[in-house]
Amino acid sequence: MTPPLTMALAGNPNAGKTTLFNHITGARQHVGNYPGITVDHKEGRLVHRSQPITLTDLPGTYSMTAYSAEELVARDYLVNERPRVVINIVDASNLERNLYLTCQLLELGAPLVIALNMMDVAKDRGIEIHADKLEELLQVPVVPIIARSGKGTEKLLDTALQVANQEHKWQSRHITYSDDIDEAIDEMVSLIEQENFLTDLYPPRYTAIKYLESDEQLLTKGGNNDPASSSLLTAIVDNISNHTLKTLEVYPESIIADHRYGYIRSIVRQGVMSQNHDSDRLYTSDKIDKVLTHRLMGPLFMFAIIFILYQFTFSWSELPVGWLENFFGWLAEVAEATLPDGLMKSMVISGVIDGVGGVLGFVPLIMFMFFGIAILEDSGYLARVAFMMDRIFRIFGLHGSSVMPFIVSGGIAGGCAVPGVMATRTLRSPKERMATLLTVPFMNCGAKLPVLALLTGAFFSEHQARYMFFFTMLAWVVAMLAAKLLRSTVLRGAPTPFIMELPPYRFPTLRGLLIHTWERTWQYIKKAGTVILAISILLWAMMTFPELPKEQSAVFSSERDTVIAAYGETVAAEVLNAEKDNLTGNAEQLAEELAEIDSREAEASLKNSVAGRIGTGLVGISWLAGFDWRTNIALVGGFAAKEVIVSTLGTAYSMGEVAVEESESLGKRLQSDPKWNKVSAVAALLFIMFYAPCFVTVVCIAKEASWGWAAFSVTFNTVFAFGLATLVYQIGTLLQLG
Ligand code: GDP
Ligand code: MG
After folding, report:
1. Which of 36, 143, 279, 483 could staple 426 via S-S, CB 3.0–4.6 A?
2. How far is the CA of 148 from the centre of ligand 1 (A)?
3. Under CATH, which architecture does the 179-275 domain have?
4. Which residue owns the Cα nearest ligand 1 atom 18?
5. Which residues sit opposite 89 in a β-bridge?
6. CB atoms within 10 A of CB 675
7. What's the pLDDT tens digit per position in 365-416?
8. Looking at the CA of 10, which ligand is closest?
9. What is the DSSP letter of 353?
10. Closest Cα to residue 439, out of 404, 478, 407, 387?
């Protein structure tokens, strides 16, 4: 059989790459209405006219600079793999912007075929595109297609095969960038050719342009490869930079970009596109955008929409959350009644049922939240949010593209920092990316929600939704300030421009919404079932072992014997056999005294356990923020996974209880505990919101950045959170706000 031909699919985000990829390979990839969904490149196989083909779906990029991880992935792939054809998918309804990437692909010298996609959208908008004219001017084959329906894809593949079978020399397309720059390029090219500088990788002209654009990756490669020639080239660049700065007050980089746009504009204006002016109407999307992204009304709508999402999530999920709680309560009762007393029983109830139940209990809430986010995402509104937020994000040294990571991490509440950290891959500049990556864990992820709900419910029950909203806003404020701090210290650097096309509004399909909701909910459940189960058993073990020494439990046993002896055997038998609620007189008194002893024993044994020792040890400093040793245990557990904070608090506060069916809800128990009040609740909340990310997130940060940054994140957040909690607790206590 003939060996497979390699083809790559390149294009702007949202141009329809994945749709085309799925159509011609038959694969099922995630198709989104949000720019930047595809992060890693994906491969698919197909056979066309008995020629096997390997097709790679590259990450969507607006350009081929070294600004973002995505752009580097795409560029490195093209340079290292040298696919036989690059299918450049271009959104016909946004021709000019899309051709910017085409221009850069031509500069790289890649063998191109242009797939002119979204011809239906262009037509709906009254835009007529003359593909043959475009083909003639660009000197590249152009095939109009509609990826969604597959129209034109056969012809596209035929053309791609034709190009693949031709001899192709990777040669940079000649575009003029003004006399000054062109002169410098010529000088550089002759030097590059003479020294064979990186010529095995790039066409000489391309290397020269990249040097002029101060492309970090190329500068590093060149510097390592041939330092002497590299510095000769940088000298030429410095020279011309000085000149352009003096004469035009800009760097060569901007001049080059301007001329690329000029080149594109001139092509498009030469009869490639004609607008159907007699239908001089506003397209529906534009009409909607007039309102939804309006300078003043836009943000108001945005806050209103987010607030409604909130109310929806919390009020509608209340009922099913209650059902699940009851179900796990019932399960615990069944286990209590059927399992023999001992370690096994304690593990099943305190470790497995409480731990996993605590997590699964919130599935409805998370599902409602994700459903809401899916509506925003699939309709195209989320992209508008990013667009509007860019103005604000910029102030804090972030970027409009940071919004998605923040929202995914729990910016609207619910969510998870793990995908949030991964979503930062779509950010352009490394510094903005790092700042985003380090601050997304401040958001209220789905795992922090239960704690928030518990504490606000217990101490601020009247206005719970309002408080939850406040704490979400607070998370944003703190994250922004932290980002600003990072961007003006360790991550100092210039901002990068924001170009994001707003995809047209589309009516979300129910099927799409359900798939999105389920995918994310399932991720959450899987995490609960595996990592959290293991951790909650581990924590149970830490809270159980070492067991109380024999002498000490003997003391409690003899106390019990003494009390029983005082009341007599008959009363004791009554206590053992009757339901607790039905006890009267002496029997009731005995039961209470016994319960009091049990409770002290449980407390002594928790204190004696590994977790108790850590918790007690930390009281030395944690008292500053008002945390007692039980809270400390939960917080230490929370580092493993925030989900376990509530369940650990539950365990720590229930171990002293008499029997499962007698225990009141954890919220009530905290309310009546003398160590807890409004001030300590807020201090604990703040600490939980901002301290070290859970270890899964930390591992992700390490993978995306480095272990050094991961360690930085843990330390920075914990110190910061503890400072904040201490401040609030001390001042609040001083003012007697509790
Ligand atoms: P990618 O970011 O380039 O991978 O783009 P996607 O394949 O995810 O497509 C973005 C959106 O455009 C999706 O909602 C697609 O359904 C839609 N889309 C793709 N091709 C076409 C087309 O030819 N016509 C129309 N009307 N929509 C399309
Ligand atoms: Mg895609």
Report:
1. 36
2. 7
3. Orthogonal Bundle (1.10)
4. 16
5. 11, 115
6. 11
7. 778 877 887 888 778 787 788 778 877 888 899 987 788 788 878 877 667 7
8. 1
9. I
10. 478
- Residue 38 in marked binding region: yes
444 lines ligand 1 (CB under 6 A): no
Token pair recorded at residue 717: 């957040």
Cα 252 to Cα 378: distance, rounded to the nearest angstrom: 40
CA-119 nearest atom, ligand 1: 23
pLDDT in tens, 491-541: 888 776 655 556 667 778 787 788 778 877 787 677 666 766 787 788 788
pLDDT of res. 69: 77
> Is the Cβ–Cβ distance between 230 and 223 less than 8 Å?
yes
Reported as a pLDDT band with limits 50, 70 and 90, residue 660 is very low
In this structure, CATH architecture of domain 5-164: 3-Layer(aba) Sandwich (3.40)
Please give the Cα distance from 1 to 18 (Å, whole number).
Answer: 28
Amino acid sitting at position 264: I
- Rounded Cα distance, 393 and 370, in Å: 24
**Tokens 């990756």 belong to residue:** 217
Q: Is the CB of 160 under 6 A from ligand 1?
A: no
Measured in Å, residue 633 CA sits from the centre of ligand 2 at 44
Q: Which residues, 6 or more positions from 501, have their beta carbon under 8 angstroms from its beta carbon?
A: 12, 13, 14, 35, 91, 94, 97
Structure tokens at 426: 């779509």
Query: Which ligand minimizes its atom distance to the CA of 61?
Result: 1
What confidence score (pLDDT) does residue 604 get?
84
Please give the Cα distance from 542 to 538 (Å, whole number): 6
Q: Ligand 1 centroid to 248 CA: how many Å?
A: 40
Alpha helices (runs of H) in 339-429, residue ranges in sequence order = 343-346, 354-360, 363-379, 381-395, 403-406, 417-423
In angstroms, the CA 113 to CA 198 distance is 26
Protein residue whose Cα sits closest to atom 22 of ligand 1: 118
In tens, the pLDDT along 20-67 reads 998 898 865 555 544 444 455 678 889 999 999 999 888 888 888 877
What's the average model confidence in pLDDT over 325-350? 85
Q: Which residue among 12, 14, 37, 511 is best mutated to probe the pocket of ligand 1, counting the most ligand atoms within 8 A of its Cβ?
A: 14
Q: Where are the domains of the chain?
A: 5-164, 179-275, 297-488
To test the pocket of ligand 1, the residue of 93, 148, 149, 501 to mutate (highest count of ligand atoms within 8 Å of its CB) is 148
pLDDT at 470 over 80: yes
Question: Taking the model in full, what pTM does it have?
Answer: 0.55
Q: How many angstroms separate the alpha carbon of residue 254 from the centre of ligand 2? A: 29
Share of the chain above pLDDT 70, in %: 90
Do 533 and 525 touch, CB atoms closer than 8 A?
Answer: no
At residue 276 the predicted structure's pLDDT band, cuts being 50, 70 and 90, is: low
User: For a pLDDT cut of 90, what percent of the chain falls above it?
Assistant: 32
Residue whose structure tokens are 């197909």? 46
pLDDT at 439: 95
Rounded alpha-carbon distances, angstroms, from residue 252 to 371, 448, 512: 47, 48, 45
390 is annotated as contributing to ligand binding: no
Beta-strand relationship, 127-129 and 273-275:
antiparallel
Cα(109) to ligand 1 centroid in Å equals 27
* Whole-angstrom distance, CA of residue 5 vs CA of residue 79: 16
**What backbone phi and psi angles, to 5 degrees, belong to 8?**
-125, 150
Atom of ligand 1 nearest to the CA of 20: 7
pLDDT(131) > 80: yes
The whole-angstrom separation of Cα 738 and Cα 736 is: 5
Distance CA 394, CA 597 (A): 60
Hey, what are 197's tokens?
């500088």
CB count within 10 Å of CB 484 equals 16
For residue 117, say whether it is annotated as part of any ligand binding site.
Answer: yes
Interatomic CA distance for residues 617 and 629, integer angstroms: 8
Per-residue confidence (pLDDT) for residue 299, from 0 to 100? 86
